[in-house]
């Protein structure tokens, strides 16, 4: 009778254990594929404790907030807040290929400044966030999380320095690798957020934090040069 009771108890526990948790490697690979396959998506970015702007920076060091859309392979439109040494300016940025325009806050017109064209590289499937996902070092075991209300698997790890250099070039930070925490949707294995802590751009500090939310995968988007 004792043996039967033990077997019954084990059966109940097994039935209550729920579905198994996917491994970090499987989740990161699936999120990378889904992110790289997306033709369009919406994003928001928030940055805190930014450092001085280095040479060769793709606009990240002065951008404290942004919200916009990406249309693959190389189009981006965003409304952003730029911190110019204590002066906060709101502007719109449009990138089409290797050309970029920003809305002059004084005149309201769009001025061309192609140095901002590299901003879209952050979302480039060949050397942007998608590559960094698969190159996350020492990933943690997935845990329960959420991103803007979407249930997800939360995974933390160190950003691979080679992937960071490929993305940012000369502007990449030279200190220890920043820490990344990603949220991957439980129902669809899509990337919904990534938080970067530490030095991404030269001049950042250990307290610098950038949070990016991704949503509206493959929603209709039509980004054109400003008129």
Name the beta content range. 35-45%
- In DSSP terms, counting alpha (H) and pi (I) runs of 4 or more, how many helices? 4
State the strand order across the main sheet. 6-5-4-3-2-1-11-10-9-8-7
CATH class, please? Answer: Mainly Beta
The fold-level CATH name is outer membrane lipoprotein receptor (LolB), chain A
Rounded to the nearest angstrom, the distance between the terminal CA atoms is: 83 Å
Helix content: 10-25%
Task: Note poorly predicted spans.
Answer: 1-17
Q: Average pLDDT, to the nearest integer?
A: 83
Please tell me how large the radius of gyration is.
21 Å
Profile the largest sheet: 11 strands, antiparallel
The computed structural class is alpha+beta
The appropriate CATH architecture is Clam
| Strand tally | 11
As for the number of domains, it is 1
